[in-house]
Amino acid sequence: MTCGQTKGKAVSPWLVAALTTLVMTLFAANSLLCRFALAPGPSSQPLDPSVYTALRAISAAAMLWLIQARRGGNALRAGSWAAALALFGYMACFSWAYVRLSAGAGALVIAVAVQAGMLVAGLRLGQRPGKAQGLGIGLAMTGLVYLLLPGLDAPPAGAATVIFCSGLCWAVYTICGRQSGDATAATAGNFIRCVPLALVLLLWGIFFDKAGVPAAWPWAGTVCSLAAGALASALGYVLWYAVLCWLNVPSAAVVQLSVPLITSVGGAWLMGEALSLRLLVSTLAILGGIFCATALPPLLRSR
User: Residue 72's CB: how many other CB atoms inside 10 A?
Assistant: First the structure.
C-alpha cells in the first residue's frame, strides 16, 4: 500500500494507535527473537548466526514476494542492489552482535548508529544540523559513551562495535530508499535480492560452525529466525509504511523511541536480562537526544 492509495480515507485514531503499537512491538521483536535464538541458555542450544541471518532474509523475501504478487506487482522491478547489500549487512552484523549483547543495549546502540549515519549523510549533502538537532545528537552520543564506559555492566566492546555497524548499514539502506515511490515494493525487491547472499551464508552455516562441524538447527532458534523474517521484518515494514501515511513527521519520530524501551522491558521480562542503572540512564539520554534531533525541530517550526 502506498500513501497515495490512502489519501482521503477516513481512519479511526484508535486503529492508527493500535497499528502503530503493533508495528513498534514487531520492531522490538526483531531484537528479542534474535537474542533468544542466538544466546546460549540452560535448556536451549543457540542457533548459528549465519543460519539465523539466512533464514531471516529468505523468510522475509518469501513473505514480501507473496504480498507483492497479491498486489499484482513485480518485486524485482523495485529496489536496488546497493540497498540490498546495505540491508544484508544490517542483518548479518545484527545477528553476530546479538550473540554476546543484551537485547536492550543492542537496540540503543543501533538507534544512535542510525542517527550518526544519517547525520554524516546530511553533512555530505550540505545539510547542517540546527541547534535542537545539535543538542540532541550530543545528548545521544553522551548516552552511548556512558553505556560503553568500562565496567562490570558495560556491554562487550566488540559486540557493540558490530551492532553499531549494523545501525550504519540501516542508515545507508534508509538513504538508498529515499527516492522510492513505493516503499513496500522497494523493500520486497531489496529482500529478494538478498536471497543469493543468504543462500551462500546458509550453506556455510549448514556445513561449518565455529568448530568446523555442521551447525545445529535447534527448533526454537529456527522458529525465531523465520518469525523474525516473515513477521517482525516483512510484515512489520509493510505495516509501518501504511501507518506512516497517517502520522506526521514528529509523531513518526516519537513513536520509534518506544522500540528500545519495549526491547529492554521485553528482554528483562522474557529472558531475565538485567535492567541496570547504567542502561536506564543511557536509555533516557539516548532517547531524549533522538527526540531533540528528530521530533523537536518540526514541533518548533509548527509554532
Answer: 6
Alpha-carbon gap, residue 245 to 259, rounded angstroms: 20
Number of domains in the chain: 1
Q: Are 129 and 288 in contact (CB under 8 A)?
A: no
- Among 144, 185, 202, residue whose Cα is nearest residue 4: 185
Task: Please answer whether residues 214 and 207 qualify as being in contact, where contact means their C-beta atoms are separated by less than 8 angstroms.
Answer: yes
In whole angstroms, give the CA distance from residue 107 to residue 272. 16
At residue 65, what is the residue type? W
User: Which range marks the domain in which residue 274 is found?
Assistant: 3-301
Whether residue 77 contacts residue 182, with contact meaning beta carbons closer than 8 Å, is answered with no
Count CA atoms closer than 13 A to 26's CA, side-chain side.
20
Q: pLDDT digit string (tens) for 78-93?
A: 888 999 999 999 999 9
Size of the chain in residues: 303
* 35 close to 106: Cβ distance less than 8 angstroms: yes
Give the three cell numbers for residue 296. Answer: 523537536
Amino acid letter for position 112: V
Per-residue cell: 219:
527448533
Of 1, 286, 241, nearest to 144 by C-alpha is: 286
Q: How far is CA 213 from CA 25, 48, 84, 207, in A?
A: 36, 12, 30, 6
Q: Using CA atoms, how far apart are residues 283 and 286, in angstroms rounded to an integer? A: 5
> For residue range 169-196, what is the model confidence (pLDDT) as tens digits?
998 998 887 666 788 888 999 999 999 9
Can you tell me whether residue 100 is helix, strand or coil?
Answer: coil
Element (H, E) at 284: helix 277-290
Residue with cell 527526540: 291
